[in-house]
Amino acid sequence: MKNGLYRKLAWNNIRKNQSTFLPFGIVASCVVAVFYMIFSISAQSDAVYQGQQSMEMILKFGTIVVGIVAAVILLYTNRFVMKQRTKEFGLYNILGLEKKHIAKVIFWETAIVGLGSILIGLLAGMLFSKLLFLIFINMLGLKSKIPFRISYQVLAVSIGIFALIFAINMFFNDLRIARLKPVEMLRESAAGEKEPKAKWVIALLGVVMVAAGYYISVTTENPMKALNLFFVAVLLVILGTYCLFMAGSIAFLKLLKKNKKFYYHKTHFVNVSGMLFRMKQNAMGLASICILSTIVIVTLSTTISLFVGIDDERRVRYPKDVDIRVVADEKVKDEKMVQQLEQRGERAREAALRLAAKQKVKIKAEEVYTVYEASLFWKNNRFYMDQSYDLDTLVNVSVMTVRDYNAVTKTKYKATKGKYIVLTNKDTILYGDDLQIGEQTFACKQKGLIYLKRFADNYSQQLFILVPDTKDMLTLQHAFEGLAKPLMYSGMKRKVTFDLSGSKKAKTVYGSKIGDWMETEKVEGISLIEDYYTTLQTALNLYASVFFIGIFIGIIFLGATVLIIYYKQVSEGYEDRKNFRIMAKIGLSNQEINQMIRSQIRLVFLLPLLVAGMHICFAYPIIRKIMAMMNLTNEKLFVMATVGTCFVFAGVYLIVYKLTSRVYYRLVGTR
Amino acid sequence: MAFLEVKNVKKVYTTRFGTNKVEALKNVNFTAEKGEYLAIMGESGSGKTTLLNVLASIDKASSGKIILNGKEMDTIKDKELAQFRREHLGFVFQDFNLLDSFTLGENICLPLVLAGKKYPQIEPQLQEVARKVNITELLGKYPYEVSGGQKQRAAVCRAIITRPELILADEPTGALDSRSSNELLDAFENIHQSGQTIVMVTHSTAAAARAGRVLFIKDGEIYHQIYRGDMTNDMMYKKISDTLTLLLEQNGREI
InterPro entries from the entry (chain A) (predicted)? Predict the structure, then answer.
């Protein structure tokens, strides 16, 4: 027979089975669209994040997660479609089409539906992302840097991935047809599903994987490692969730069933047995809902806290409004050169004051001090320097005089000649009674653990060495530089920092002008000028895009969740109709049936939400650490954002539940 | 007063646009005593299923009265109807209507569980009814694992487990082969002998021949009835088929 015939047959089948193919096509298109949108944002994210690798990594990882969920959804919905189609194929078989001919029909069906969904999905993805983008720009007035250009590479990869998924579907369909006898095919859709067996091993595996993911999240201390471990934990929890919903739920229901006292109860009886059978097909859908819900909540809450917390984040990084660093022209070798450096600093300070007078702002809380800074590594109780750049062992060293340190931090350390004071935020560096740098040993007066409110963040190791005199700074500089060359960020600096008071506009103008001002005043040795207000503006622009992407992904995933819920309700409505009709016949009033349906739906709906809530709770510690790495240390804000998002999401979820259960009720036909 | 009394029952169906009226039941009158085994025979379209539905309170009569055990069915409120059905009536359907997600045992227990009974009460009743129709060893199986006859016997169990006053059976042998039919009818006879009132609608002569009395319904009216008296099943069978032949001949003359 000619190929054209199969194509025509396939096309006719699709048209005649619209009620089966249409929902499947819609779901497939949406899945493709979602994947495309995430993927294209991820591919363009470098424009937005500008080296913020963690965000880029998170997006890439997000793309992979979406890919997995997409594959699962498509495989799962395909199974539902095939079950309804098998009878038809059985009929073909009996009417004289060989199985290899049926395979050809299936090939064409898959090709038409698959290609159609991929095309529609990609188009919808492009249009929708552009539309959302425009709405956001107009609504929030955000300046986003995402160009939303269409990348051929992204298109090609998306097409490739989904073509593969559809090919796998086709393979399974052919396998199914090849395995069944014609008579079995005829009976397939009418035959009751076999009672699912409790797969204890998989259930246990699910528990272990979820527990392992939770354990990683709760116990990870080092934020530098947190990001990588976070991915591992997320993968474990996702796989574990699927296992738990698939096998764990059945095992759990079987246990309930064994408990005769619980089982033989008006609502439990029907619900438990109904769920038991239904879980086989529903597990995938419920697990997907659960995972997507978790992703939505995490994305939205972190994005909101990042956006709202910009101010805090900038303050951690830029504690003072203006920070001017002055360095010498060459390496500072003796006290005379230190004095010259201090004079340079003074000139810079005077210039800054003159500008303040001109711009009508006042300078307050001035802090001027000399510091020797270097970054190196600490391992096995000694300092060292090499190319490994191991973030775990990185130590930022600051050497200051006791006088300066006391002045800046309002502390009262006492200087003793020839003895140093060592302060740090990590106890690992506090080894021994004295300070060992290379082969040299320095006597220490005291060593102490401090919590840093100033200077730097608490998540990397900071070491302060307070010395009685400028001469000691030079000694330590010599000792550190004897370790290796070159040291990172090393050198003697004079820091001139202060806050501004005045109108916000005046302060912003001051910040934007200070750099040029120093040049016109011909102040020498300015190595860096940072001002809080300029950097805040930059950050706002940067985070606007981050915020946009977060909201965007949140909306996409929410849409996907709604879709799965809808699909589930519809597919179940058809199946349950028969059961509830029977129950009506043997003496159950409509009211009682509705009650039963409600409790059943509620259970099915609340389960993913509850598990998602549990995931969020356990994910919280590790996400907080990642956020801290991005300098968001305002925990109260983050807790509020998370809880708020959870509530809003639960609200939306419930509305979707109400709306879709109407569809279900209509199908079951008790109203 | 009779146990079941059907008085001047009429049922008129109106087509959707109200232009055509179809009289499914014209004027049905009969009574049944407690413990009677009554068969209602008639051709397709004669109104026998309508009659059963009205008896079962699934459908409402247009006029007339149905009194079961002194209680007039019309007076029962809609809300209480389901409960009434559950407590006073048992049903056996042609297509079994078992739930696929339950084992046979669970299907049988369903009415009791729905009525809020506790497991310790349910279990002995389940064993008792299962023994009556001989499916004790099948209780753990699912409907798709057993034959049609076995399914129907389970359905009978489900109908009698609530100890209803009246069992209504709608073509119970309609989907069964002759051997399964016989086993089912044996089961019916068995439960009838233990004092159960049964009303069965059928067009199988063999099934009707097992009943204590057979009512013939035609065009919405009862026009004949046969009492078993001392007749054996075979004699009953002969008599029913004679009556049916007579009916056919009458029809022929009318045409």
Answer: ABC-4_Integral_Memb_Prot, ABC3_permease_C, ABC_permease_BceB-typ
Residue A342 shares a structural domain with residue A483: yes
A48 and A83 inside one domain = yes
Question: In chain A, what residues touch B89 (CB-CB under 8 Å)?
Answer: 587
A595 and A494 together in one domain: no
Contact A61, A183 (CB under 8 A): no
A396-432 confidence digits (pLDDT tens): 888 888 878 887 777 777 777 777 888 877 766 666 7
Same domain, A292 and A379: no
Antiparallel, parallel or unpaired: β A394-401 and A461-467: parallel
Amino acid identity, position A90 = G
What total number of domains does chain A contain? Answer: 3
Q: Which two tokens stand for residue B143?
A: 């409907």
Q: Which of A664, A244, A224 is nearest to A461 (CA)?
A: A224
Could you tell me how many residues make up chain A? 671
B101-125: pLDDT as tens digits: 888 998 898 888 888 888 888 889 8
The whole-number pLDDT of residue A671 equals: 45
Does any domain span residue A530? no
Residue A308 sits in the same domain as residue A249? yes
Q: What distance in Å separates the CA atoms of residue A118 and residue A112, rounded to the nearest whole number?
A: 10
Question: Residue A429 belongs to what domain range?
Answer: 328-524
pLDDT digits (tens, 9 = 90+) for A182-237: 777 766 655 555 666 778 888 899 999 999 999 988 887 776 666 778 888 888 99
Q: What is the pLDDT of residues A428-482, one digit of tens each?
A: 666 677 777 777 777 777 777 776 655 555 567 778 888 888 777 777 777 777 7
Domain membership of residue A539 (yes or no) is no
Domains and CATH numbers, chain B: 4-96+165-230 (3.40.50.300)
Cβ atoms of residues A39 and A129 within 8 Å: no
Query: Which of B81, B91, B100 lies nearest to residue A586, judging by beta carbons?
Result: B91
- Among the three residues A191, A211, A231, which one is the final residue of a domain in this structure? A191
Most B-contacting residue of A253, A254, A256, A264 (CB-CB within 10 A), to test interface = A264
Residue bearing tokens 């600093």? A345
Model confidence pLDDT, tens digit, residues A290-315: 888 888 888 888 888 877 777 776 77
Residue A25 shares a structural domain with residue A49: yes
- ipTM of the complex in this document: 0.77
Residues A35 and A139 in one domain: yes
DSSP B101-153: TS-HHHHHHHHHHHTT--HHHHHHHHHHHHHHHT-GGGTTS-GGGS-HHHHHH
Does residue A540 lie within any of the structural domains?
no
Q: Are A307 and A335 contained in the same domain?
A: no
Quick check: B100 and A274 CB within 8 A? no
Measured CA to CA, the distance from residue A150 to residue A173 in angstroms comes to: 34
Shortest distance between the Cα of B177 and any Cα of chain A, in A, equals 20
- Asked if A5 reaches chain B (Cβ–Cβ under 8 Å), the answer is no
pLDDT range class, residue A87, cuts 50, 70, 90: confident
The pLDDT of residue A456 is: 53
pTM for this prediction: 0.70
Q: Which three-class secondary structure state does DSSP give residue A188?
A: helix
| Contact between residue B32 and residue B199 where contact means Cβ atoms under 8 Å apart | yes
pLDDT over 60 at A49, yes or no: no
Residue type, A338: V
Q: How confident is the model at residue B255 (pLDDT cuts 50, 70, 90)?
A: very low
Does residue B111 belong to the interface with chain A, where contact is any CB pair within 8 Å? yes
Report how far residue A8's alpha carbon sits from residue A395's, in angstroms, rounded to the nearest whole number: 71
Please check whether residue A190 touches B, CB under 8 A.
Answer: no
**Chain B contact present for A276, CB below 8 A:** yes
* Distance between CA atoms of residues A638 and A631, nearest Å: 12
Taking Cα atoms as reference points, which of B168, B200, B201, B155 lies closest to residue B57? B168
- Give contacts of A277 with chain B, Cβ < 8 Å: 100-101
